[in-house]
Specification:
About 60% of the residues lie in helices and about 5% in strands. The chain is built from 8 helices and 4 strands, in the order αβααβααβααβα. The strands form 2 sheets. The chain has a two-stranded antiparallel sheet. The chain has one domain: EF-hand (Recoverin, domain 1, Orthogonal Bundle), CATH 1.10.238.10. By secondary structure, the chain is mostly helical. This is EF-hand domain-containing protein.
Length: about 180
C-alpha cells in the first residue's frame, strides 16, 4: 500500500501523462507529448528526429504502459497505473520495468542524444510536451541538479525516478522529478 505522499506522487505522475485530463492514457495521448516536444525543438513532423521521438514513445507505450492495461481496453486509467506501480514496487522484475521506462523517457527528452538531459530539454519535455508550468519545471530542475552542473546524466535520472516512486521522505530530491504536486 502507498503512503499518502506516494499516492499524491502517483496521481501527479498520471496527470503529467494525461495533459488533456481525459482520465485515461492512450497511445495518441502519449505520442502527442513527443509531437509537441518535436515542434518546440523545431523538428519537422517527418524529420528523423521527430520520427525517433514518436518511435521511442510508441515503444514506451507498448513495453511500459500497455502492461498496465488490466482490462485490455487500450485505455489506462489512474487506478490501473496505481495498481501497476504498487506491484512493481514489490517485485524485482517490476522495478526493472520501471527503470526501463525511465530510461526510455530520458532518451526521448535527450533531444540531441548526448546522454545528458540539460535544463532546456527537461523543461521543454514537461512544460511543452506535458503541459506543466514552465516556471515550476525550471524550479524542479534546479532541485534535481544536485551537483549544479546544468544537466542530469542517466544514472542521476535513474536514481531520481526510483526515488520519486519509492521514497516516503517528503524532502527527497526525486520528489521534484515531475514538478510540484
Amino acid at each position: 500500500m502507498f503512503t499518502k505522499l506516494q499516492e499524491r506522487k502517483i496521481n501527479h505522475f498520471f496527470n503529467v501523462l494525461d495533459p488533456d485530463g481525459s482520465g485515461a492514457l492512450t497511445l495518441p495521448t502519449i505520442v502527442a507529448i513527443g509531437d509537441r516536444y518535436a515542434r518546440i525543438r523545431g523538428y519537422a513532423p517527418t524529420s528523423a528526429e521527430a520520427q525517433r521521438l514518436r518511435a521511442a514513445l510508441e515503444h514506451w507505450w507498448k513495453t511500459v504502459l500497455c502492461p498496465m492495461d488490466a482490462d485490455g481496453d487500450h485505455r489506462i486509467t489512474r487506478e490501473e497505473v496505481a495498481q501497476r506501480v504498487a506491484a512493481a514496487l514489490s517485485d524485482v522484475k517490476g522495478a526493472e520495468a520501471f527503470r526501463g521506462a525511465g530510461d526510455a523517457f530520458f532518451e526521448v527528452a535527450d533531444a540531441n542524444g548526448d546522454g545528458r538531459l540539460i535544463k532546456d530539454e527537461y523543461v521543454d519535455i514537461f512544460a511543452v510536451g506535458c503541459g506543466l508550468a514552465r516556471r515550476d519545471m525550471i524550479q524542479a530542475f534546479q532541485r534535481l541538479d544536485l551537483q549544479g552542473r546544468g544537466y542530469l546524466d542517466l544514472d542521476e535520472w535513474r536514481n531520481l525516478v526510483e526515488e520519486f516512486f519509492t521514497s516516503t521522505d517528503s524532502d527527497a530530491p526525486g520528489n521534484w522529478l515531475y514538478g510540484t504536486y
